[in-house]
Amino acid sequence: MSINLKKISLLLAIACVIFLAWYFSNITIYIVLALILSLMCSPVKHLFLKIKIKKIKLSNGIATVLAMLSVLLLLGGVLYLILPPLAHQINAIANLDQHQISTALESPLHSVDYYLKKYNLIAEDEEVKNIIISTTLEYVRKINVSSFFGGVIHGLASLFLSIFSILFIAFFLLLDFTKLQTTFIRMLPNEYQQEMTNTFLKSKKLLSNYFVGLAVEMLLVGLLGFTVLSLLKIENALLIGVISGIMVIIPYIGPIISFAIACFLAVTGAFIIDPSANFSMIILKLFSTFLLCRLLDNFFLQPYIASKSVKAHPLEVFLVILIAGMLAGIPGMMLGIPVYTFIRVFAKEFFGNSNFIQILTAKIDHK
């Protein structure tokens, strides 16, 4: 009876923690993002700690700073690959001759009008062009300029505060993770301290492997996309490849989003150079490239990285992502596997006597 009461009290404590995390959701998001960043930096930090300069090892603080700088420089390099080409593309689109655009779109819009009217989706006297223009103008009229710019300034200030908070938390998580872990565990009842220590150690190892593997997956998908699109002479191949790699972090939906962005960038890029280009062929090339990347990612990269790094079956991973997406949308899909990994390790340590938990967590300790 006492064992059951202990487990019930443990579950109540977990429920309180979940409630507090939900109530202070903004702070929770900062902590989660900082934890992800620190887990990505952790293997890099271990590499720096192994470096010896004339038999002198780098200190914990210096290794932490170097690891953070290395990962941030990598992220900055990705932004550098994205922002200048994207700004150039937007500027080129803004400088296009509107009459030229209207002429190029006239034939496709007539085709769209024909099919929509054929299936009674719009009235005979309506045109898609006029519908788009009227809808756009309606939304533009609703924009309050002063409120818009005020919102932009407020958004930039919030973004700066968010970035600073995440970096600050991540630095100290990376610097003193062991001390923070020990302090937290000492707050728990003695009978739970060993199990929680094992939970932290195993979760850190699995999640660190997962995020490093995810970074490799993003790199390979982006590199493959860039290489194939360059060989097919698609405009903005580098930008499309980088965006495709980044969108890997959103399971299943990310590739669809990246394909839509790729179509826009490739078609507008080709239109700027040659308004008479064969846009159907461009989209076909893009579709073939994205299909190739998807086959590689779905059948080779994702099963190996997600399944092997967190020691879960591919079907199990798919169901977790599906449920997480239904509960919390895109953020849930992105964080579903890390959260599920921690829950599995926690359940194994505290409720390992259950047959269900034993089957669910059988692979965690396998190397």
Task: Give a topology summary.
Layout: H1 2-23, H2 25-50, E1 52-53, E2 56-57, H3 60-94, H4 98-118, H5 128-142, H6 145-175, H7 177-186, H8 190-231, H9 237-246, H10 254-273, H11 279-310, H12 314-350, H13 355-360
Antiparallel strand pairs: 1-2
Helix pairs in contact: 2-3, 2-6, 2-8, 3-9, 7-8, 8-9, 8-11, 8-12, 9-10, 10-11, 11-12
Q: What is the helix fraction of residues, given as a range?
A: over 70%
Count of strand segments: 2
Name the shape in a single word: globular
| Oligomerization state | single chain
Sheet of most strands? 2 strands, antiparallel
Find the structural class using helix and strand composition.
mainly alpha
The order of strands across the largest sheet is: 1-2
Regions with pLDDT < 50 over 5+ consecutive residues? none
Count of alpha/pi helices: 13
End-to-end separation in angstroms reads 36 Å
Radius of gyration: 26 Å
